[in-house]
Amino acid sequence: MAENYIPPDDWLGNLKDSLKESKSVFKLGNDQRRDKDTIPKILSVSDIQKGKWDTDRILTTTLNGVKRAITTDDLKAFKKNIAIAKNTFTGGMTAQQIINHSLDIDRERAREQITMVVPISANRGVVRFMTNAGGETPNVHRHYVNVEFLHYEIEASSADTTARQAALNLRKKPLKIECDCGRQRFWHSYIASIGGFKFGVQETGFPRIRNPNLNGVACKHLLRVMQEIVSGGAFITFMTKQLEKGKAHDENKAQNKTTQKNAEKIVKNQSLRKNNDIIIKELKKAVKNAPKPNKTAKGTGGFKPNPNLPDPYALMKSQFKAMGLSDKQIDAMIEAAKNNA
Ligand SMILES: [Zn+2]
After folding, report:
1. Is residue 60 domain-shared with residue 154, that is, in the same domain?
2. Measured in angstroms, how far is the CA atom of residue 181 from the centroid of ligand 1?
3. Distance, CA 157 to ligand 1 centroid (Å)?
4. Is 295 a member of any domain?
5. CA of 223 to the centre of ligand 1 (A)
6. CA of 288 to the centre of ligand 1 (A)
7. CB neighbours of 103 closer than 8 A, spacing ≥ 6?
8. What is the distance in A from the centroid of ligand 1 to the CA of 33?
9. What's the CA-to-centroid distance between 219 and ligand 1, angstroms?
10. What spacing in Å lies between the alpha carbon of 278 and ligand 1's midpoint?
11. Based on the domain organization, do 315 and 223 belong to the same domain?
12. Do strands 68-69 and 60-61 pair parallel, antiparallel, or not at all (unpaired)?
């Protein structure tokens, strides 16, 4: 199950192959969308607007719980949900707004499972990212996310900012997004399309089975990328380089690719950070569960370690040592955990 999934060491693969692979996965998704077997199953916006559909087609929904045949009342409910979503998402979505409008479950999955994200290429304001997969689909170890920075041209042509300042500005500006995973395609891409923040081919089919109430906006891969855009160092380094190129050309044309070496460096730093988070979490747990001093014992005059109990930190210390941490690092972490427990 995904909870205990650890991406294989070579999940990053060869970046040149990844660039090719990313193009083909998006193409495959779009081809499937237009397949002759898929088209009759799509409940289109015009079906909903007209309030009727071709009854030769048996269409179902899960609105209000169980899966059943759709009715004209359902179409009215869908129309209302579309109006609410349209109202909510006017004016463009920034990375932070996408995080804010996402579902708890997607945020939790992003935090727990998606530990690594690398910007792999850029063409003007469109950046392609790669993240590790969450382990739910067998043999899928990575996903691709495209992000269009809608203010890229403005920032690239501005004489008032350095490339780095321009990159920092883009963190807070509106975006368009897409991910190749099923969650994004079948649950959220319709919402992103009507909200005006779907990158690439627009989705006009209403998610009558997966998401008839139109909840949430982004999958865990996209959310990890949004977090990187809001506060990550790898994104700023990459976008600064991209804007340096953009600002140097009159026509603002710029392409940028991450080297294999740099991508490996980014991933290594991110996994170290994740390891540290896990260690701190374990330490806090150990401190919380450590035997408490017996305050009711008479005449003890305060806490005295019980010599009959094992040192709660001894096992931790030996495990950290085996992981290659120094005594100084281990002591500092235990101290920090004690203070935060
Ligand atoms: Zn995704």
Report:
1. yes
2. 4
3. 32
4. no
5. 8
6. 36
7. 215, 216
8. 17
9. 5
10. 24
11. no
12. antiparallel
Q: Which residue's structure tokens are 């010599």?
A: 307
Overall number of domains in the chain: 2
The rounded distance, in Å, linking the Cα atoms of 325 and 315 is 14
Of 8, 7, 242, 259, the C-alpha closest to 126 is: 242
Please answer whether residues 182 and 109 qualify as being in contact, where contact means their C-beta atoms are separated by less than 8 angstroms.
no
C-beta separation of 340 from 285 below 8 A: no
Distance 177 CA to ligand 1 centre (A): 10
3-state DSSP assignment of residue 42: coil
Residue whose C-alpha is closest to residue 287's, from 335, 227, 332: 335
Token digits of residue 297 = 């014992």
pLDDT 10s digits, 84-138: 999 998 878 999 999 999 999 999 999 999 999 999 999 999 999 999 999 888 8
pLDDT of residue 282: 73
* Ligand 1 center–CA 142 separation, angstroms: 10
Q: Is 299 among the domain residues?
A: no
- Distance from C-alpha of 159 to C-alpha of 62, rounded to nearest angstrom: 53
Do 268 and 228 lie in one domain? The reply is no
